[in-house]
Amino acid sequence: MPRRMRSFDGSMEQLPIFLDIRDKRVIVVGGGTAAARKADHALRAGARVTVLADSVNDDFKEWADHPNLTVLAETPRSEHFAGAILAYGAAEDREIDLAVHKLAREAGTLVNIVDSPDYCDFVTPAVVDRDPLLIAISSSGTSPILARIIKARLETMLPSAYGRLARFVGELRGRVMEAITDGPARRRFWERIIDGPVADLVLSGSTEKAEATLNSELEAARREAARPTVGEVYLVGAGPGDPDLLTFRALRLIQRADVVLYDRLISDCLLNLVRRDAERIYVGKMNRDHTMPQEDISELMVRLAQEGKRVLRLKGGDPFIFGRGGEEIERLALSEIPFQVVPGITAATGASAYAGIPLTHRDHAQACVFVTGHGKNGRLDLDWKTLLQPAQTVVVYMGLSMLPELTREFLARGADPDLPVAVVENATRRSQRVVTGTVTDIADKVAEAGIEAPALTILGTVVTLRARLNWYHPSSAASDEGDCLHAMPFDPVETSEFA
Questions:
Q1: Residues forming the annotated binding site for S-adenosyl-L-methionine?
Q2: I need a surface site. Which of 159, 258, 329, 435 has the fewest CB within 10 A?
Q3: Is the four-CA dihedral 274, 276, 281, 284 of positive or negative sign?
Q4: CA dihedral for 73, 74, 75, 77, sign (positive or negative)
């Protein structure tokens, strides 16, 4: 199956993991508040902690009698680090902390020197604790204050009862795994449980009712497993490029899909939101270069859904505006495949907003027309009479290759030679560029600037407003992926959750 190759620039500076340090040795050097915090975290995780310090402050009193805590008034030596899994340098004395770094490295022990990112094999994240549910937030050591602020916000969003829910689910995992042997079916079961009435009952403290309801759901799932299942297709508009423009519903379905069919306008930023184990299939199309014909895409969606899979058809912009979404769901309806359609911000509204060009304005345009610039046999077949009406804006999709022909036709049919025109490349992305001109010179300006697809053309006097209303100023050196987590696709469950 054709796939678009994805490139990663290694921008994830650290690998987030959770270590099991129960009954393993952890060394903390220092007796102040910073050292006490490190010792606290390690003790709560079940480690055997040795603190090396001439003296310790009152922050250590809480664990003075802890059986896993040993305090030694000794200078750090190599034998202290032998067999230790982690070491913290928190002496707040540069010479001592650098010695700790050297000794730990020699012993093969992972080391963290407080407030010294260049001397850290790992960082201690800010933690939202809903035991056994833990959420770790890290800025890779660049801004601990930012991580702390995000932690505070998450604390207000997640009730303490989420820990109860995590324990409830954990206690029943074995039974569910025995009852539902198919991995995808088990995932769907847990999604219904955790995002439905059972979870609500657990969170409210009605654990017995929750277990009874879960048992009923489990019995229903057993019966369903005996019947052939038909999947579902989610036709989702991903917007013009900026991931922040996704709707909540789009995000929810993106994270639910088993298979993703995506086009060339879908960035790695968006694909990173897809569940880690979901299959990704590239079906992108360019002018005269179709990876997969439209008919084959529609047939593929039908086949995958008939196999019981939840299929995400992820399209740039809005699927019903020059996105062939109507053709695709016609084929699904013919095969009686369930589907949902999620609208997205279409390229016209995204490009105009980020370019500072209102599509309508009381002083300029009381109407707006969207047309496609794809020419048949190299010729444009448009309703020119409609397009040349006064007091309106014309937006041309997919018309970059036909721009010289488009402007010639406008002029030949009586358009004002000074009619303002804007061409927006990579609208809403950090690499967005906008070229403005008139219907007379825009084609030459676009060629000179090296504008490439995807690009959208806006014609009308509203373009003159850009000089005052242009608010979006991305860095010329910015990457479209600058705000993305390249190497960390969304994974709604732990790797072993459905093994």
A1: 240, 316-318, 321, 346-347, 398, 427
A2: 159
A3: positive
A4: negative
